[in-house]
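ENTRY TYPE: protein
WANTED: fold as tokens:
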Amino acid sequence: MKLTFLSVGKDRSGLFSPGVDEYATRLSHTHKVSVLELPESRASGERAKEEEGQSILKKVGQRDVLVALDERGKQLGSVDFAKWLGRQQDSGKDVAFVIGGDEGLSEAVREKASLVLSLSAMTLPHRLARLMLVEQVYRGFSILRGEPYHKA
């Protein structure tokens, strides 16, 4: 199973990238992992969402189950998310997680998504959301393997 984490924009602060890299490395021991940062659109508003959405969809493969991160999405606890990951793994498909830019995700991306997922009802900085997502994916697979990490 390949896991792709697509996000718009870079972590210019340097605060979150080390954590993302750490969890991506841990995940790479058991899965193919790709972390891609797509450039932000120079446009604003709806036009930025549309341009970034097109860029995102070009990177999503035919075999990918698309998961769109959005604060209006479905909230899952860690165990339920782990079960969802397990079903995807059993299906033999790859999973692409996408986090939009400052303007959010286009409707085209949301419509193509098999799951629109919310990490929190609160608005999170996109770079922090990426770190939380990669950690929760790692936690989910740890739960599936019965490892003690998820109890930490």
About this structure: The mean pLDDT is 94. The beta strands are 2-8, 32-38, 64-75, 94-99, 115-118.
